[in-house]
């Protein structure tokens, strides 16, 4: 019994590793409108509009386990990926997020954005083809037209 109690005391002396909360800055607060546009190809107001448009789909799926990445940073990481086309520049350049996390984020956020596409993308109807084509011709000479 004494050995057991001695072992318990030894275990109490071992330091417990704690998760370290990373301070992740919000780039929309950190950068001005010009810098945000350079990095994401959207102005701050447009990023906030996109965020509010897709947040209804998003928040009920967010888990608070571990160290979750805030929803705004998930959107910004996805937009940064669209601009650069590489995961590495997203993970190292701005957020210090692992590549696997960035891959999951981009996949999930792209689905949220695509779900809203029908509200913003309109293709011309057959009745409007001729009017739209004439408007394009009024813009000036175009190759192949």
Question: How would you describe this protein?
Answer:
By secondary structure, this protein is an all-alpha fold. It has one domain. It contains eight helices and no strands. It has helices at residues 2-13, 27-30, 33-40, 44-58, 71-84, 87-95, 99-115, 129-138. Helix 4 (44-58) crosses helix 5 (71-84), helix 5 (71-84) crosses helix 6 and helix 5 packs across helix 7. The longest helix has 17 residues, at 99-115. The N and C termini lie far apart (92 Å). This is Nuclease HARBI1. It comes from Tegillarca granosa (Malaysian cockle).
SSE arrangement:
Blueprint: H1 2-13, H2 27-30, H3 33-40, H4 44-58, H5 71-84, H6 87-95, H7 99-115, H8 129-138
Major sheet attributes: none
Oligomerization: single chain
Helix amount, in percent? 55-70%
Measured between the Cα atoms of the first and last residue, the distance is: 92 Å
Organism: Tegillarca granosa (Malaysian cockle)
Protein name: Nuclease HARBI1
Can you tag this structure with a few keywords?
61% helix; mainly alpha; Nuclease HARBI1; 145 residues; 8 helices
